[in-house]
């Protein structure tokens, strides 16, 4: 049996396998990230790191969509 952890994405709690990376979690849940940015603890995580960035118990993740403007 896999170990499950709880994480929060934009205020919604998810129970996920501890082995998920950021990218596999987002894909598994069908979360659209086109034009988006991810922040964990107010730190932007570059898209190039999503494939290797693991998830930790209790993390609060924010997904922001880019908005054009000035």
From TrEMBL:
Pfam families: ThiS
Lineage: superkingdom: Bacteria
Full protein name: Sulfur carrier protein ThiS
Species this chain originates from: Aliivibrio finisterrensis
Protein's gene: thiS
């Amino acid at each position: 049996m896999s170990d499950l952890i709880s994480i929060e994405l934009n205020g919604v709690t998810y129970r996920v396998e501890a082995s998920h990376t950021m990218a596999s979690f987002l894909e598994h849940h069908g979360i659209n990230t086109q034009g988006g940015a991810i922040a964990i603890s107010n730190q932007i995580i570059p898209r190039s790191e999503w494939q290797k960035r693991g998830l930790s118990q209790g993390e609060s993740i924010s997904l922001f969509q880019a908005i054009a403007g000035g």
